Amino acid sequence: MKKLNRMLLREIMKSKGQFIAAAAVVFAGIAMFSASYMSYQNLRNSVEGYYEKYSFLDYYAKVQSISSAGISQIKEKEGLKDAIGRISIDLGADMGNDKRVTIRLISLPDEAQPSINKLVFKSGSYFNKNHQNSCLVNRKFAEFYRLKKGSKVKAIINFKTYEFNIDGVVDSPEFIYAMKSSTEVSPSPERFGVVYIKESAAASILGMGNMYNEVHVAFKEGVKADSVIDKLEDVLKPYGFNAGIKRKDQLSCAMVDNELSELEKIAFMFPALFLTVAATIIYIMQRRIISNQRTLIGVMKAIGYTNSRILLHYILYSLLIALVGAIPGVFTGIFIGTRLTRIYNQIFSIPVMEIKIYWNLLIIGVLLSVSFCLLAGYGSAKRVLSIEPAEAMRSEAPKIGKRIFLEKVSFIWKRLHFGWKMSIRNIFRSRARTSFTIAGMMATIMFFMVSLFFMDSIKYILHQSFFVFQKQDYKIMFSRPSSYYDALELQNLEGVRKVEPILEIPIDINNGWRKEDSIAVGIMKENSFCHLIDDTGAPVKVPESGLLVAHSIAEKLDIRPGDTVKVKLHLKSIQEKDIQVAGVVKQYAGFNCYMNIEELGRLTKEGIFATGALMSVKAGDKEAILKELFDMPGVKTVDSRVDGYNDFMEFLDLMYTFIGFMIFFGTIMGFSIIFNTTVINIMERRRELASLKVLGYTEREIESIIFRENMMVGIISLIPGMLFGRAMCNFLAQLFSNELFALEVIISPRTYAITCLSVFVFTVLALNANKKNVSGLDMVEVLKNRES
User: Fold this and answer.
1) Which of 193, 213, 233, 560 has the smallest number of Cβ neighbours within 10 A?
2) CB burial class (10 A; 0-12, 13-18, 19+) of residue 81?
3) DSSP 3-state assignment of 786?
4) Are 518 and 550 contacting, i.e. CB atoms less than 8 angstroms apart?
C-alpha cells in the first residue's frame, strides 16, 4: 500500500466519528432519494403500462343521447383509432344493514369486453349469457362489502329496486382512484362503487333503447389531440353535447398524476438538502485537517510530492465519505421504496403493479453523492496548492484577539461568570464554524418543521372541511330532482332537528379564454349547515343574487368580486348564463361554487327545486331515521359527515409513513451537524482545554463550557430556523396545492415544541458522543505540540 494511502486510512481512523457522521448524512439523502424515486418509477411505469395494456381512453364526452349509428359515424373521423358508446348513470343501492350508497351503473357489451377501458378480472368471469341481470363490480367496493361471485347488488332505479347477480370482481384503468366526483375529499369504497351491467339490460331498465349518454374515444398515434377534439365536439353538438374531458382531466387519472408529481418533487428536493449539508460538513472538516497538517503538507512538497498528488490525497477522503454513505443508502432506499410502493398500491387499484428494483438507481445515487462530496472536497483541499514548503515549516501566526461587541457593554459583561465569557468569546471569534453550525441547525429545524407541517395542515384542513364548513349530520341526495317543498317535508320525520334543501348542478365557468369545471351548490340564504368564509376567515353570507366562487377557481380564472362570468349549466341541455361574481370563498377540497337556491332555480328556468337536502338529527334517533330514509325509493344516497371524515383518516397511513421516514432522516442530519461542530470545536481548542485541565478544571466543567456554546448557538438558530422553516412550508404549500386540493400553512405549537426539543436533544447526544475526546486530552502532549 502506498504511503499516502496508509496516511489516508490513519486519518480516517483518527477522525472516524466525523467520517461516519458525514457519511450518515449522505446515507440519509441517498436513501430518501432511492426510496421516493423508486416508488415514483414503479408507480409511473405500472400506471402507464396499465393504461396501454387495457386501452384507457384518450377523451370522453357526455351527451344527451347518441345512437350506435352515431358512434359508427364518429369512428370514421380522422385521427380516431376507436370510439365506443355506453350508458353511465349514478344511482343509489341498498347494501343491507340500513346502508345506502352511490353506485355508478355502466353498460358494457353483452358478449365481450369493450375495446376501450378493458377490465381486469380479479375473480369470476364476464357476464353470464343466461342471466339478463348479471353484473360485475369494482374490486375495492367488493372487498369492503365482502362481495363475491353469486352475491347480489340491489340498485334503485326510477323508484324501483332491481337485483343484479355478481358474476365477476374487476379492476379498470378508469377507476384506479375511484371517487364519485371532484367534490369528494378521498376515495371511499364504503360510499361509492362501480357496477357494470349488460348493455341490453341497461337499455331496457333505463329506457334508453339503442342510445348512449357517453362517448369514449382513443386517438391514433401522433395526431394533434386538441384539433381532433374540436372537430369531434362539433360533431357531437346535435346529440346534446354536455361536456368533454381529456384523459389528463379524467378524475382518477388527475388524482394519480397529482400523486406522481408530488412524489417526483420529494425525490429530488429533500435529498438535495441532505447532500448540501453533507458537502458543507466535508468542507469544514477538511479545512481543519489541512490546517492541522500544514507542516506535513510542506514536508511532502519538499520531498517531491506534486501538488496534484497531494490534492488527490485529500479529495480521496471526500470520495470515500460519498461511497461509504451512498452505497448502503441506495440499498436501504430500495428496501424502503419497495414497502412504500406496496402502501401506495393499497390506496390505488393497479392490478398490474410491478415492483422492480432499478439498479440504475445505484449509479445515480453514487454519482449524486460523489458530485456533491467531490465539489466540497476540492473546494477545501485546493488550499494545498498555495502552501509553500518553507513557509509551511513555520507555525501559523496566532489569530489576533479582539474584543467582541458584548465586552463593550460593561454593565452586562462584568456580571457574567468566567465560563460564560469563554463560551461567548469562542462563539463570536470562530465565526466560520459558528455560521456553519447555525446554518446546519436552521436546515434541521426547517426539516423538522416541514415534516410535521404536512400532518398539521392535513389535520387542520380535515377539521375545517368536516366540522367547520359543514354542520349537517347527513347529506341526502335524491334519485331525481324534486320539489323544494317536498325536500322540506323530510323535517316531519320523527327525530329530525332541521332540514335544508340543496340544489347541485355541474357548471363550467368561463372568463375569457380560461375555463374551469365546478359544481354550483344552491343553498338557503339563511342556512345553518354551510359555513362559508373568505380568505381572511371572515364569514360570507349567501347573497340574494350572484355567484360565490371558490378561491382556487378565482385565482386560476383571475376573477374578482363584481366581475361577470359566463356560466354553462349542465342540465338536460346546456344553458349559458352571464352571472356576476358576488364574492370569493375559501375551500380546501372540492372547490364548489355557491348561490342562493332560489336564484339558481330561476336561472335554470325550472323553478325552485332540489336535488338533495342537508339534515341534522337527534342523537338517539339516527338509526331509526336512516332506516326510514332508506325505505324511501326517491332517496338515492345518505352520506354521513362523520363517516366521510373517518374514511379519509384511513388514507393517512401513507402520510404518516412518509413523515416517519423524514423525521428519522432529519434526526441523522441534526445529530451529525452538531456532532461534527462539537468535534471541530474540541480539536481546534485542544491547547485551551488542556490548559484549563492544568488549571484544575474538571472534565464536567469543560463539558459544560462546550455544552453552553452549543446551546447558545442552538438558541440563536431557533428564530431564523423557524422563519426559514415557515418560508419553506409556504413554498411547499403552493408547490403541492393542485386543482383538487389546497394546502394551508398551519404549524401547531406542538410542532414548534418538538423542533426546539430536538435541538436540545441533539446537543446533549453530541456532547455525550464526544466525552472521549474531552477525557482523552493528554495535557503534557497537547501543551508541547504547537500545531494542535
Assistant:
1) 560
2) middle
3) coil
4) yes
Q: State the burial class of residue 72 (Cβ atoms within 10 Å of its Cβ: 0-12, 13-18, 19+).
A: exposed
Pairing of β 152-157 and β 88-94? antiparallel
Residue that has been written with the C-alpha cell 446546519 in this structure: 440
Distances (CA, A) of 613 to 37, 100, 161, 249, 485: 45, 15, 22, 29, 11
Decide: helix, strand or coil at residue 108: strand
pLDDT recorded at residue 367: 87
HSE toward the beta carbon, residue 276, CA cutoff 13 A: 11
CA distance 346 to 335: 18
The model's pTM: 0.78
Task: Decide: 213 and 243 in contact? Cβ < 8 Å.
Answer: no
**What is the distance between the terminal CA atoms of the chain, rounded to a whole angstrom?**
28
Q: What is the pLDDT of residue 788?
A: 41
Using 70 as the pLDDT threshold, list the residues of the chain that sit under it: 1, 98, 183, 185, 392-402, 405, 590, 650-651, 653-654, 738-740, 775-788
> Among 474, 400, 461, which Cα is nearest to 641's?
474
The Cα 29–Cα 590 span in angstroms is: 35
Of 692, 48, 620, nearest to 354 by C-alpha is 48
Q: What is the pLDDT of residues 656-699, one digit of tens each?
A: 777 887 888 888 888 888 888 777 777 777 777 777 777 777 88
User: φ, ψ for residue 606 (rounded to 5)?
Assistant: -105, 0
Q: Considering only CA atoms, which of 214, 202, 189, 209 is closest in space to residue 86?
A: 214
Q: E strands of 524-641, at which residues?
A: 547-550, 564-570, 574-585, 593-596, 609-617, 635-640
Show the cell assigned to 43. 408507480
Name 637's bridge partners: 477
Residues in CB range of 587: below 8 A, 6 or more apart: 465, 469, 550, 551, 552, 742
Cell numbers 379498470 correspond to what residue?
172
**Strand pairing report for 120-124 and 160-171:** antiparallel
Backbone angles phi, psi at 578, to 5 degrees: -95, 120
